[in-house]
Amino acid sequence: MDSVKKSEMTLTVTASFPPVRACIFDMDGLLINTEDMYTLCANNILEKYGRPPIPWSIKAKLMGVPGSSTGEVFHSWAQLPISREQYDQEQKEQQMLHFPHCKPLPGVEELLLTLTSANNVNGDKVHIALASSSIKENFQLKVSKLENQKLFNAFLEHRRVLGDDPRLQKGRGKPAPDIFLMALKTINDSLSEGESPITPEECLVFEDSVPGVEAARRAKMRVVWVPHAGLATEYRGLEQKVLAGRIGLVPIGDEHQLGEVDDGWGTHLPSLENFPYRNFGIYV
Hints:
Structural class: alpha/beta
Number of domains: 2
Distance between the termini: 24 Å
Shape: globular
Helix content: 25-40%
InterPro entries: HAD-like_sf, HAD-SF_hydro_IA, HAD_2, HAD_sf, PGP-like_dom2
GO molecular function, one term: phosphatase activity
Radius of gyration: 19 Å
Low-confidence stretches: 1-15
Pfam families: HAD_2
Mean pLDDT: 93
CATH superfamily of the largest domain: HAD superfamily/HAD-like
Number of helices: 11
Strand content: 5-15%
Order of helices and strands: EEEHHHHHEEHHEHEHEHHEE
């Protein structure tokens, strides 16, 4: 196994992996800047009630955790003089106001455009799917801008799996692997005649959150972790543990599903700009 240093990241390349045939994308904080919007919405409410802005030490515990923005960790820290129900209502009002202004993150447009016509080194078409914990109502708000509608046209309608998809078991959000396995199923169910089913080992997941990386590892898929700069700072020195899925932010058991530190299944990148396709057997 060869390790190649690139700025602060380590890209681990190993010949034991098959070329990638499917790329599965998270959305929030990976494709569009919704994490900054979530922070803005929370901070506007905190400021209204004389509370300080949410620090990354707290936000890092919320990212990628379903329902965490109105959960115990946040409210124990925030100590707001309002009920959780009122906070939830005010948060929804803020989101209605700000979500339509989400923007694509650096490198996203080029990456999706490239992958829609890419093959791997074996000549197999590379397929893409979306696996986002966002519920449909929020998803539609976030992609309502024409620029974002065009961006998400890269994902076929039947290859989008959202957090409230009825095919997903309730209570099995990330870090459980279900959403990524369902996304793979949507691809396999719509392959062209002559294409063999894609295995989890032939999938590459793109994630920004720590629970999302863990979900990918539990699904037995390779993963690219592209954290927000603030989140990356919180996990400095723990990158390989994150890539192994072994942070345990939301314990769900079944630790046999997790990876091992430095096993080569994960890659840490600062952004999606200048994506290293060849490291994953993708030909462009």
